[in-house]
């Protein structure tokens, strides 16, 4: 949504325009990164994750599963991965198929159902307590059709 110009801003612009003065740029508040903003990962780990340099410990492919089956599989798989001491899991959701011209209207979606639902499930209290970071996977590990799930250290 476009921001509306205030009356004071409009007057200032018209005055500067009338006097042929260059418009003064206003100071813009800078957003500072806070420590720990990467979801509990240190900067080196986050950088390596962003660049796809950490080899995943395991991969879970949810292609072709129903929502219920995928939700159960995700929870069980992450529980087992955590017990095995795995840290980086790639969860493949797929990008979703474009709507076929003869498909029903209710199937219309910009992308797949699992691509929408998996991040929601990972944010639920039962799973979120195990997770340090969730982000889209690097292209070499699935890109837009996959997620990195970086698990917290077991205590």
Describe this structure as you would to a colleague.
It is built from 5 helices and 4 strands, in the order H-H-E-H-E-H-H-E-E. It has helices spanning 7-18, 43-50, 67-84, 113-123, 125-128, and strands spanning 58-61, 88-92, 131-136, 146-151. Strands 1-2-4-3 form a 4-stranded mixed beta sheet, with helices on one face. Strand 1, helix 3 (67-84) and strand 2 (88-92) form a beta-alpha-beta unit. The radius of gyration is 23 Å and the shape is elongated.
Please provide the ordered H/E string of secondary-structure elements: HHEHEHHEE
Number of domains: 1
Estimate the helix proportion, in percent: 25-40%
Shape: elongated
Which ranges are low-confidence, i.e. pLDDT below 50, for 5 or more consecutive residues? 28-37
The assembly state of the depicted protein chains is single chain
Rg measurement, Å: 23 Å
Which descriptors apply to this entry?
four-stranded mixed sheet, alpha+beta, Ribosomal Protein S8, Chain: A, domain 1
List the helices and strands and how they pair.
Layout: H1 7-18, H2 43-50, E1 58-61, H3 67-84, E2 88-92, H4 113-123, H5 125-128, E3 131-136, E4 146-151
Parallel strand pairs: 1-2
Antiparallel strand pairs: 2-4, 3-4
Helix pairs in contact: 3-4
Short description:
With 155 residues, this protein is of the alpha+beta class. 34% of the residues lie in helices and 14% in strands. The chain has five helices and four strands, in the order ααβαβααββ.
